Structure formats: C-alpha cells, structure tokens
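TA notes, week 10

Several of you asked for a full example with nothing omitted. So below is the full record: structure tokens for the whole chain, then the designed sequence directly under it. When grading your own attempts, check the secondary structure regions first.
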C-alpha cells in the first residue's frame, strides 16, 4: 500500500540518522528533502537563523505551533538548556504519530511535550494543564491564517511577558500578510525581518522575530 510523505521522511531518519543524535536527525531530513522529496520543514537555511535565535534567547519555556514531522521541534530542543520545556501542538493525528517517532529517534522525548490538538483549543489551557506561566519563545509554523488569531489569543491568555519572543516562519512565502501588518504596526511589539529562502528552494522567504514589549 502507498506510504505517505511523512512516513517516507521517518524511514529516511531511521535509515540515515544515529539514534540519540538530534543533529543527525535534522541532517537526514534535510538530505531527504533536498535529494528525494520537498517537504514543509523550516529547512537548513532558515534553520540556522532559528538556531541563532534559540541560542540567543536561551528559553526555559518554548511553544511551537504546528509540529508537522518534528524537524524544527528537534532542531530547537537540541539547543535548549537542561531543564527547559518545549510544548508543540499538532492537530493532525498522522503527523503527530510520525513526529513522536522522529522525536524519540533523536532521544529528546524528555524535553518535548507533543500535544495532539488545535492551537485555538490548547493555548487557553497552557497554564492549567502544563503549569506554564509565560513562554520565553514561540515558534509559529502552522496554518498561515492562524498566526494572527493565535497571537491575539496568547496575549489574552497572558502567555506573553515583557521580552517574550515570537518567531514566525513563512512571512513571505506562502505569506502571512495579516499577521505581519499587525505585528509590525502594533506598539506592543518590536519586529525584525530575517531575509532567507523558502526551504530547499531559491524563492524568497524569511522569519519575522518580534519582541513583546508588555
Ligand atoms: N491550528 C493548528 N493547531 C495545531 N496544529 C496545526 C494547526 N494548524 C496547522 N497545524 C498543523 O501544522 C502543520 C501545518 C503547517 C502549515 N505550513 C505550511 O502550510 C507551509 C507551507 C509552505 N509552502 O507551501 O511552501 C512552506 C512552509 O514552511 C510551511 O510551513 C500541519 O502538520 C498541520 O496539521
Ligand atoms: Mg514553515
């Protein structure tokens, strides 16, 4: 029977990456996407910008919106300090199942909590369910029309504190115009665009890094 692309990506990880070595998992996925099949991971070029932001912020609490197969989840978690927690939300059960196996292969199960469900349902539950007060870093990489509503929801739920960082993928391609317009014009954020390319292509894309000012 026909396999899915996430299944083929997982197979590539299990074949080419070393168990317990997160960076080899990242490398195996990038190799699969460059040589075999394109997939919507943040990728190696934007991934380097992601790495530098994670390293600079050195977050104790991270929220990722849109796990997909776990590429950026593993990439971020591999750079976190010992007691840091990363919560990642994914509502597609098939993608969640693949991501769990990718995360397990990387040996990062104790740093990452994958929650199967919709961001709109789970953002309001972060405090009661996970004892999270605020997030130091949020990585937005889910459906592009959810970036703005979910950002407003995080504000309303008090999940952002002065200095919290929002890092958004795909602000050019596929694009998140309403989010960009809001975040660049709001007095509550200071934003910076990191120009790059759409993963594994020559098309323009970039990451928008925004600091919540409180
Ligand atoms: N509200 C929500 N709550 C929880 N999980 C959710 C969610 N909305 C979407 N998801 C999940 O997040 C992933 C979607 C990513 C959309 N990215 C994209 O559509 C995308 C497209 C291109 N592209 O077309 O070139 C390039 C990229 O880098 C991209 O991230 C999927 O796994 C989906 O199930
Ligand atoms: Mg993306």
């Amino acid at each position: 029977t026909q396999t899915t692309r996430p299944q083929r990506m997982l197979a590539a990880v299990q074949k080419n990456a070393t168990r317990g070595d997160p960076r080899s998992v990242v490398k195996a996925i990038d190799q699969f996407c460059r040589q075999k099949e394109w997939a919507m991971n943040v990728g190696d070029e934007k991934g380097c910008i992601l790495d530098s932001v994670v390293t600079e912020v050195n977050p104790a609490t991270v929220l990722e919106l849109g796990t997909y197969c776990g590429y950026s989840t593993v990439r971020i978690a591999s750079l976190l300090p010992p007691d840091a927690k990363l919560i990642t939300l994914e509502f597609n059960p098939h993608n969640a199942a693949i991501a769990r196996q990718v995360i397990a292969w990387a040996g990062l199960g104790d740093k990452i909590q994958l929650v199967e469900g919709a961001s709109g349902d789970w953002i309001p539950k972060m405090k009661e369910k996970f004892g999270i007060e605020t997030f130091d870093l949020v990585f937005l990489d889910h459906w592009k029309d959810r970036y703005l509503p979910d950002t407003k929801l995080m504000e309303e739920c008090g999940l952002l504190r002065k200095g919290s960082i929002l890092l958004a993928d795909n602000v050019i391609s596929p694009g998140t115009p309403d989010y960009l317009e809001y975040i660049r014009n709001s007095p509550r954020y200071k934003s910076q665009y990191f120009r790059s390319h759409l993963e594994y292509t020559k098309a323009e894309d970039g990451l928008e890094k925004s600091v919540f000012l409180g």
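The two ends are 52 Å apart (CA to CA). Use that as a sanity check on your answer.
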